[in-house]
C-alpha cells in the first residue's frame, strides 16, 4: 500500500499527541513525587530537631535547677559547650548571670512572663540586620527562673544533623528567625512542615541532580504508556471508522476520475497495426496502482458493471476527441453482457460512433465471457452489428459460452484467453485445447485474436496456425493516450 503525506501526518499525530500528554503527565507525577518525598523528609528532619530541642531544654533546666547557686550553675554550664550566656532571676532580681548575657537580650525580658521552652528573640533597639538569638526559658519555680541564650550558629552546631545529598536544599525556621538555609527559604516554603511543640518549621527541597533523575525516570516510564495509548487510539479509530469497502472506493474513484485508460495495440499476421484494446487502470490516492485483477471482479460482483462501462465510454470519447488517425483502426471496449440489454445501449453506441468516425476509428465491443449471455443479449448483438459495430467474444474458453451458443451467435472475433496462449511450448494438459479453439474458429469462419502473446515462440506458433491477430507484451505494452498520439497518428 502506498504511504503518502496524509498517512505520515496521521501517524505522526497519533504518536506525538499521546507522547506529549504522557510526558506532561509524567512530569506532573514527578513533581508530586518530589514534593511528597521532600515533605516526608522535612517531617523526618523535624522530628530529629524536636528531639534535640527537647534534650536541650531538659539540659538547660537541669543546669539552672538551683537558681541561687552560681558556682554550681557555672560548673554545669561548662558541660554545655554550645551555651555560653545565662541568667537566673527571682522576683525581678538577678541571682546569677554570665558576663555577656545582656549583650544579646534586654533587661525588659526579665519582666515578661515567658513560657518554658525555646523562643526566638531580638533586642528591642536592635536593627533588622542584627542577629536573632534563641532564648531557652526554664519553668518558673519558688526558687526562681533561668534563661540561656544561643546564637544561631551555636544552635546549628548543637543540632549536629547529617546533611542529605538528595535533599540538599534545607531551611529551618525558629519562630520568625531563619536558623539554617536562608538562601533556600523561598524555594522550600511551599513544602515546609511545622512543629506542634516548638516554634520550629522545616522546609526541604530535592537537589537539582535528584530532581533531574526523578523527572528522567518518570519521562522514560511514560514512553511505553504513550505507545500503548497510540495503539489504543489507532484501534479505536479503526473500530469507529467505517469499514473499508472496495466497492465504495470504486464508486468514489469514478467520481474523482481516478480511473484512466491505456491502449494496447493489436497486430495482424503481417505485423501491421490493426487496432487497440482499451484497458482500464486505477490509480488510487492511498493504495497506489490497483491491479485490474482486483477491481474488475469487484465491479462484476457488486453490480457496478453498468456505471463503470458508461465511465469507460465517456473516457474513450474524451481521450479520442483531439486525435485523427491516418488510417482506420479498430478500438475494442470491454462491455458486460447486461450492457447489451441496457436502455441506453443504442444512444451510447451512436454517440460513440459519431466521435469515432470523426477520428477514423471503428468500434468493437468485447463482450466478456465470464458472465452468461442471455437470450435478450444474444438478440441485441445483431442490432449492434447493424449499427456498424463489430462484436468480439472476450476471454473465450474460461467462461460460460457453450458450443451451441457459438453456432447461434453472430460475432466477428474470438479472443483466446492468455491462459491458453501460455501453453505454447509447455507440456500441459491444456496444450491441445489451443489448437482445438483455433480450428473451431476457422470452421465457424471467425477471426481470432490471441491475447497475452509474450515471446516469439508463441507469436510464430499462432501465426503458423492461422491466428489472424495478436496482442501482448511481445508486440507492445499498453500505452497512454499520449503515447498513442505520438506513435500512431497524425493531427
Q: Would you give the CATH topology of the largest domain?
A: TIM Barrel
Main sheet: strands, sense, barrel = 8 strands, mixed, barrel
CATH superfamily of the largest domain: EAL domain
Relative helix content: 40-55%
Q: Class of the largest domain, according to the CATH hierarchy?
A: Alpha Beta
Task: Tell me, briefly, the overall form.
Answer: rod-shaped
Number of helices: 15
- Secondary structure class reads alpha/beta
Keywords: Membrane, Transmembrane, Transmembrane helix
GO molecular function: cyclic-guanylate-specific phosphodiesterase activity
Organism: Enterovibrio norvegicus FF-454
Transmembrane segments: 9-29, 215-237
How would you sum up this structure, described in words?
- The chain is α/β, with parallel strands linked by helices and 491 residues long.
- It has two domains: 5-209, no CATH class; 246-488, EAL domain (TIM Barrel).
- Helices cover 44% and strands 21% of the residues.
- The chain contains 15 helices and 18 strands.
- It has helices at 5-63, 70-78, 152-159, 185-188, 208-240, 246-255, 292-301, 305-320, 345-359, 375-386, 403-408, 418-421, 431-443, 456-464, 481-488; strands at 85-90, 93-97, 117-121, 133-137, 145-151, 169-174, 177-180, 193-194, 200-205, 259-268, 273-284, 288-290, 329-335, 361-368, 390-396, 413-416, 447-450, 469-470.
- It has an eight-stranded mixed barrel with strand order 10-11-13-14-15-16-17-18, surrounded by five helices. The protein has a five-stranded antiparallel sheet with strand order 2-1-5-4-3.
- A hairpin with a 5-residue loop joins strand 8 (193-194) and strand 9.
- Helix 1 (5-63) packs antiparallel against helix 5 (208-240) and helix 8 (305-320) runs parallel beside helix 9.
- It is rod-shaped and about 150 Å long.
- The relative contact order is 0.08.
- The mean pLDDT is 84.
Amino acid at each position: 500500500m502506498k504511504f503518502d503525506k496524509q498517512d505520515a501526518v496521521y501517524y505522526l499525530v497519533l504518536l506525538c499527541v499521546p507522547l506529549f500528554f504522557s510526558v506532561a503527565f509524567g512530569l506532573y507525577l514527578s513533581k508530586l513525587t518530589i514534593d511528597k518525598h521532600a515533605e516526608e523528609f522535612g517531617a523526618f528532619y523535624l522530628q530529629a530537631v524536636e528531639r534535640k530541642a527537647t534534650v536541650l531544654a531538659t539540659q538547660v533546666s537541669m543546669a539552672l535547677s538551683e537558681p541561687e547557686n552560681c558556682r554550681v550553675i557555672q560548673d554545669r554550664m561548662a558541660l554545655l559547650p554550645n551555651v555560653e550566656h545565662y541568667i537566673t532571676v527571682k522576683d525581678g532580681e538577678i541571682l546569677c548571670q554570665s558576663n555577656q548575657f545582656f549583650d544579646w537580650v534586654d533587661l525588659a525580658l526579665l519582666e515578661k512572663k515567658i513560657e518554658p521552652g525555646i523562643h526566638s528573640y531580638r533586642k528591642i533597639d536592635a536593627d533588622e540586620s542584627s542577629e536573632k538569638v534563641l532564648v531557652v526559658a526554664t519553668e518558673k519555680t519558688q526558687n526562681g527562673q533561668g534563661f540561656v541564650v544561643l546564637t544561631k550558629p551555636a544552635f546549628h552546631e548543637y543540632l549536629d544533623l547529617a546533611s542529605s545529598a538528595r535533599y540538599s536544599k534545607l531551611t529551618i525556621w525558629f519562630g520568625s528567625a531563619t536558623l539554617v538555609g536562608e538562601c533556600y527559604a523561598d524555594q522550600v516554603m511551599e513544602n515546609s512542615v511545622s512543629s506542634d511543640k516548638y516554634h520550629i518549621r522545616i522546609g526541604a527541597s530535592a537537589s537539582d541532580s535528584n530532581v533531574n533523575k526523578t523527572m528522567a525516570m518518570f519521562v522514560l516510564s511514560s514512553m511505553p504508556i504513550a505507545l500503548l495509548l497510540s495503539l489504543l487510539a489507532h484501534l479505536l479509530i479503526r473500530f469507529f471508522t467505517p469499514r473499508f469497502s472496495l466497492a465504495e472506493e470504486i464508486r468514489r474513484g469514478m467520481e474523482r476520475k481516478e480511473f484512466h485508460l491505456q491502449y494496447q495495440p493489436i497486430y495482424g499476421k503481417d505485423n501491421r497495426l490493426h487496432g487497440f484494446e482499451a484497458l482500464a487502470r486505477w490509480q488510487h490516492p492511498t493504495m497506489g496502482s490497483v491491479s485490474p485483477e482486483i477491481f474488475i471482479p469487484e465491479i462484476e460482483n457488486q453490480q457496478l458493471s453498468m456505471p463503470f462501462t458508461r465511465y469507460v465510454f465517456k473516457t474513450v470519447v474524451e481521450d479520442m476527441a483531439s486525435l485523427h488517425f491516418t488510417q482506420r483502426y479498430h478500438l475494442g471496449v470491454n462491455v458486460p453482457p447486461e450492457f447489451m440489454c441496457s436502455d441506453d445501449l443504442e444512444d451510447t453506441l451512436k454517440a460513440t460512433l459519431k466521435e469515432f468516425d470523426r477520428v477514423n476509428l471503428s468500434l468493437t465491443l468485447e463482450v466478456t465471457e465470464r458472465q452468461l449471455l442471455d437470450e435478450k443479449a444474444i438478440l441485441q448483438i445483431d442490432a449492434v452489428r447493424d449499427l456498424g459495430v463489430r462484436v468480439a467474444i472476450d476471454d473465450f474458453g474460461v467462461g460460460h459460452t457453450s458450443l451451441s451458443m457459438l453456432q447461434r451467435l453472430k460475432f466477428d472475433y474470438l479472443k483466446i484467453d492468455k491462459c491458453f496462449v501460455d501453453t505454447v511450448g509447455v507440456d500441459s494438459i491444456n496444450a491441445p485445447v489451443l489448437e482445438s479453439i483455433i480450428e473451431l474458429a476457422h470452421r465457424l469462419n471467425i477471426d481470432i485474436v490471441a491475447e497475452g502473446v509474450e515471446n516469439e515462440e508463441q507469436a510464430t506458433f499462432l501465426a503458423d496456425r492461422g491466428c489472424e491477430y495478436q496482442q501482448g507484451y511481445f508486440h507492445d505494452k499498453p500505452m497512454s493516450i499520449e503515447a498513442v498520439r505520438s506513435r500512431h497518428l497524425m493531427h
